[in-house]
């Protein structure tokens, strides 16, 4: 009897604690409301605005590389302007992708922030929950990124030789921080797309602008993963000159060219073409098929591991193949996806034909 | 006694649970094992046509050696050796094609149903190729100028050759089904690809039935493989956007006596 009393004194509190924790988690799973989401969006905008000299926003340049124009101090800005290898990536890749992601976010947030309770279902709530979390993650990343940027510019103000190993090391380190920052922005744009789809607007397939934006948003990770998260995470142009490096440079060049096509899809003046429901359905079907190719492309990119190839194997592909037998297959998949007549170019061309734009509106 | 029974039952239950957990941990969940097999066979195995002193190179040198014999090379011998040589070449082209896409496949019932025939086929063909190479290397000093001995060696290795053919065909039949049922790319996996692969397989399937004869089927398989599966296989990748080709393929699929069938097998179906 004594033993039972003693055991229950321990077991009962434990059960109570477990029940409370489960209750907390179940409440946490109820989803984010629009009010909370709007608050976090406001925090995001205010924080970015408080650093307006760093994040220079130009509303006239929506859907272009210059929607946000980040600066890094005179010395580095001049290096970027003059197209100096490795430094120009800060604008060509990082800034561009950040701008495109934030353009999409700013253009489409109202779709979800204007939702009423009656319009919400479980799917919407869960997607808003995810979106909210991504915005919170991004908000938490802003100040550390600003610090990293300030440290970076200060270093260059003091030690201005852009080609010294110390400066290049600083650049690499900053790029890693920048990549994490841009990644958070891209995550918001992708979560927002999911949230927009969950509202049912996309499923009705009547709004051409939404369809176009959502498809273009799906394209963004193609550039982001390769140019920022892979190539951009180390100074690829400094790596050993070999045949495989030439092949990868060709892939980069093709991606850069198609990034321009991607951006021009947004450049509209008088508005989008009128499309029938059949045409919109066809576009969506084609988008769905294309996304399967993107999935293979991402698998290939992950499988190839460019950093391992360049840094640990000095771009010696034969050596690299010994430990990664599928490397040639992955590289060919990337080439096939990104080359001039490859999957990406073809898809962009077909989108341009279908979803654009009076000829006189081309910028 | 009662305590002992309870403890035993508890231990059995724990053992069963642990067993289930471990089985699930190591259960196959993707197509990696099969795709690695295909890739290894092409990159470093008996279907690697670039490997120095590999099975393909060694066997081909040997076959060329036999075909160069002027006396005693009966038509039967000549046909068998040439058929094997042509089939082997065709296999390398097709296998290379498969290896490029097979890494990007879904794990599903089609894969599960065909995996073992693919693995068994390639393993067995690999073993026979190795055995053939061992024989060739062991007897390489003997397969010299003596005509009788040269051709006698073919009698000794013909069994290996036939096994390579039959087992590779078995693997390719499974692979074609996996390709159609599991390859994720909508561009690479389409009606044209399926038609090409299944047609090639059916011609390759005739080899062992008439091995000693001059078979045109191997030429057809080789022509098709070169025309549609080699290089960037652009015709397959652009099929979805090629209305002319789509119409021809549909005609072949729905019409047993389609006029386009001859274009398919002579490699010209994609020409305007």
The fraction of residues in strands of chain B falls at under 5%
Number of domains of chain B: 2
What is the total tally of β strands of chain A? 2
Largest sheet of chain B: none
User: Taking Cα atoms only, what radius of gyration of chain B do you get, to the nearest Å?
Assistant: 23 Å
Tertiary shape of chain B: flat
Portion of residues in beta strands of chain A equals under 5%
* C-alpha-based Rg of chain A, rounded: 24 Å
Helix content of chain B: over 70%
Structural class of chain A: mainly alpha
End-to-end separation of chain B in angstroms reads 87 Å
Structure commentary:
The complex is a heterodimer of chains A (363) and B (272). Chain A is mostly helical and 363 residues long. Chain A folds into three domains: 1-30; 32-55 and 83-202; 205-363, no CATH class. Chain A is 73% helix and 2% strand. Chain A is built from 14 helices and two strands. Chain A has a two-stranded antiparallel sheet. In chain A, α2 (34-50) packs parallel to α5 (122-158) and α8 runs antiparallel to α9 (243-264). The longest helix of chain A is centred in the middle third of the chain and has 37 residues, at 122-158. Chain A is globular. Chain B is built from eleven helices and no strands. Chain B has 272 residues and is an all-alpha fold.
Write the layout of secondary structure elements.
The complex is a heterodimer of chains A (363) and B (272).
Chain A: H1 2-28, H2 34-50, E1 55-57, E2 68-70, H3 74-81, H4 89-113, H5 122-158, H6 165-198, H7 201-204, H8 208-230, H9 243-264, H10 277-304, H11 306-312, H12 317-323, H13 327-338, H14 343-355
Antiparallel strand pairs in A: 1-2
Helix pairs in contact in A: 2-5, 4-6, 4-8, 5-6, 6-8, 8-9, 8-10, 9-13, 10-13, 10-14
Chain B: H1 2-25, H2 32-44, H3 55-67, H4 75-101, H5 109-138, H6 147-182, H7 191-204, H8 217-229, H9 234-237, H10 243-254, H11 261-265
Helix pairs in contact in B: 2-4, 2-5, 3-4, 3-5, 4-6, 4-8, 5-6, 6-7, 7-8
